[in-house]
Amino acid sequence: MFENKRLFVLDLDGTFxxxxxxxxxxxxxxxxxxxxxxxxVFLTNNxxxxxxxxxxxxxxxxxxxxxxxxxxxxxxxxxxxxxxxPKKRVYLLAVPSVEKLFQWSGIELVDEKPDLVVMTYDxxxxxxxxxxFCDFxxxxxxFVTSHPxxxxxxxxxxxxxxxxxxxxVEASTGRRPDYxxxxxxxxxxxxxxxxxxxxxxxxxxxxxxxYTDIECGLRAGVETILVLSGETTSNMIPEDPPYHVYKNLExxxxxxx
Length: 257
Description:
This protein is an alpha/beta fold. The protein is built from nine helices and 15 strands. A hairpin with a 6-residue loop joins strand 10 and strand 11. Helix 1 runs parallel beside helix 9 and helix 7 packs across helix 8. The longest helix has 12 residues. It is globular and about 55 Å long. This is HAD family hydrolase. One of its GO terms (cellular component) is cytoplasm. Its cofactor is Mg(2+).
C-alpha cells in the first residue's frame, strides 16, 4: 500500500497527538515518511490556532521542523474568501491570533454591516459575539465556516467544536452554513495534492474521524486510513469498509517496514 507514495496527509488532534502528548508511533511515523523521501503534511480542521502556532507546538513535542508542513482550515478559508469574495467585509468569529492572520492576509474585518459572516473555532466566544453573528445570519448574510467537526478530542475528553456552534446558530436562525471549507470537502485535499506536485495514486490520507478525515480521503479518491486513536471506535466501523483501519500510527509504522 505504501509503495511509491509521495504525499502523506495527516490529521493532528486524535491522530498524531492528543492534547499536549504525542500518540504512540507519531514521531517514528514522521521519521519513516522522511526516510522515504515523501512529504508529510498535517491537514487540520482545527482553526483555533495559526500554522506557526501548530509548528511551534509540534517542535515543543519533539518533532523536528524539517519533517513536516502544516495546513489549517483557517488558511483554506482565507484562500476561499480571497478567490470567491475578494474585497468583501467580514464579521469573523475567531481567536485573536487567527483574527490577526485574516487581517494580515488582507481580509477586512468589521463589526457592522458585513458582506458575509465567517465562523472559525473561536475558543474566546462570548454571548455578545454569537448574538451578533446570529443577527447577521437572520438578515441573510452569506455564512461561511471553516469546518464541521462537532467535537475536538483532548486528553480529558471531547470539547465542543465548530459543528456544535453551527447547531446553535441553526437552532436560533433556521440557517446552516452556505459554505463549509475544511474536511470532508475534497477540494482542500486536492489543493494540497497540486501544491505538493503529487498525484492521487501517490497520496495517503490518515485520520481518526469518519465524517471528516476519512470522508475527505474517499471523496478525493486517495488511499485512506482510519486510526482508532481519536474519535472513532471499532464499533462505528461498517462491515468491509472502503478504507484501511489501524489502531494507531505505531501499527502503521510496523506495516511500513
